[in-house]
Amino acid sequence: MAASRASGSLAVCAALLAAFAVAAAAPARAQPGPPPPPMPPARLIVTGEGSVSVPPDYAEITSGVTTQAKTAKEASDANTKTMAVLNAALQKEGVAPSDIQTVRFSVSPVYGTPQLNHAPPLVGFSVANELGIKVRQIDKVGEVLDSLIAAGATDAGSVQFLHSDTSKALDQARTAAIADARRKAQLYAQASGLTLGGVAWITENPAYAPQPQMGAMRVLAASPAVPIAAGQDTLRTQITVGFEVAH
Predict the structure, then answer these.
(1) Please, where are the H alpha helices in the chain?
(2) Which of 118, 133, 185, 203 ranks highest by number of CB atoms within 10 Å?
């Protein structure tokens, strides 16, 4: 009799627990999930390119003198004398002192041929002095090189043709890049059955052309007039444009 009442009590408890479990789980199942993320706006993304050719308006020349002597002082004194002649020649050609700058100065030991089981002997010293020279009158680059060689320069090369201000020229390239991007977008929209809208955003990746450069030349003696052609440089820019579209 007692066993029957106990088993009945257990059955009632189990039923109550099951009912509580169902009641607790039912609200959780009834809760709605998070709303789906909004669809991104339709866009057509293209890349546009533009370029413009402009002549350089100044040049940079790297030139200098290397001298050798038995002592560092003798080599330095000889170098100083020749560099003074170089500076005078540059100013005579109309190069302003503010456009002449020392870019390298070094004093190095010079060693002879090593002998068997002996360290190479010290035979003297070498002094190198290099100048960075801006030539504002670009048509006089050849004359300036001639003057440097005649004045005793042992290194007269590494000529670069540069631009003092590329902003206005690049603006022309940017305008061309926008037109190129719109032309491509209209083509893609028409081929895809889309209606092209306004510009949503623009990013720019400027790709400026490297400057033409003459390799460094070691000059040992005066030479005839050096022919120099500055030519033109091509400045390029690239943009990425996102256009709004509608189906």
Answers:
(1) 2-30, 72-92, 141-151, 167-192
(2) 133
